[in-house]
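Hi support team,

I'm filing this because I wasn't sure whether my run with nicotinamide-adenine-dinucleotide finished correctly. The job status page said complete, but I'd like someone to confirm that the output block is well-formed before I use it downstream. Pasting the exact inputs I used:
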Amino acid sequence: MRIAVIGTGYVGLVAGTCFAESGNTVTCVDIDEDKIRRLREGQVPIYEPGLEELLKRNVADDRLHFTTKYEEAIPGADAVFIAVGTPPDEDGSADLQYVLAAAQMVAENMDGYTVIVDKSTVPVGTARKVKDRASQHTSHPFDVVSNPEFLKEGAAIDDFLKPDRVVIGSESQKAAEVMDELYAPFVRTGNPIIHMDIESAELTKYAANAMLATRISFMNEIANICNRVGANVDKVRKGIGSDARIGSRFLFAGLGYGGSCFPKDVKAVVRTAQDADYDFKILKAVEDVNERQKRMLYEMVDEHFGGDLAGKKFAVWGLAFKPNTDDMREAPAVVVIKALLEAGATVTAYDPEAMEEAQHRHLGDTVTYAKTPMDALDGSDALILVTEWNEFRRPDFDAVKERMAGTVIFDGRNIYSRKRLEESGFTYYGIGT
Ligand code: NAD
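And here is everything the job wrote out:
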């Protein structure tokens, strides 16, 4: 099949590459000329394990193309996936201007029946808006389908090629069949393609992210109680996770959720509920807990140093909002670091992939970027672990101690053993451990 993908971000680039990998001819469109230029030169603008190799192979095999011009991608396409950003508006609702602009451009360039697929995470009712906008700009027949994406950054290729499930919301049999054919290669092992009405498909994505965010905030609250009553959240986690009704995944306490999806999607559900005259109390609390949690480590640091951080030097390990990505949108590291800087401290940071992103978009030159994790430690009063990259899991703590001026470790992801660190002469702080 011929496919076009609009937007070459984490979702669009992965989807486009994977659809090319399964034998389709794919053209990816983005309005960011620099991104398209880099992609055409074989440079992958984001860090996502496995993506570069797959992308280069499909470009070389002439199945994957990049352009800024809709007129090169849309005519002749059987399906067009809209995968542009849907950032939160000021009132928390999803800003649909990019989705609707893309829909219009797709409609203006269609030359026959086309399936327009909403891949971006969009509120209930968006497919109708896309349909309205598109129909004002074409006389060709088309259907709009909702096909929310569940991939996780850091494991996106695997998630796309082997999805737990594919959700398709459609009111047209013809469009549903096109989607089934496209996804058939990815569900050979029997994972389901779940068909439903468009509104339910749109809400499914938000419900999934809202549930996951709720688990995180719930466990963070349990951790905060653990800190106060002398319990250990890791033990509680194992204790409840072995209950099949609860399950063991997504129960880790830490510094709160970040990234481009959970924060904005939780906001969007609260807003959707409000618009429908419903007060979604649980999700409002989930948000509040998360904001408080992002500052938790800073509060611990401040208390440890008696409220005086002026002139103190901190090493921060990890900047990305989670391991295996360079994405720093809504990353807890930004909150922790800005609070430290405001209090008059200095920060030297290290992240295996996100330092360029941090410097260009989030922190500029307000912090020093180290070449290695060990270099970040030199002369620091404390080490603050923010993102649990594998390479931070088993450092040589004797060497760590030698490079630092102080002996305190704040572990924002509970990856170290208190016992082990205290035996090595460190003062250890965890989140509920
Ligand atoms: P992103 O910000 O990384 O990428 C969006 C891209 O769209 C950018 O490159 C931008 O230049 C381009 N764009 C904007 N307007 C355009 C237009 N009119 N025409 C062509 N290109 C245009 O976004 P992302 O993280 O890939 O997310 C995209 C959507 O998918 C969002 O709705 C998001 O909620 C959803 N989603 C994201 C993830 C994730 O893990 N990142 C997972 C599932 C779903």
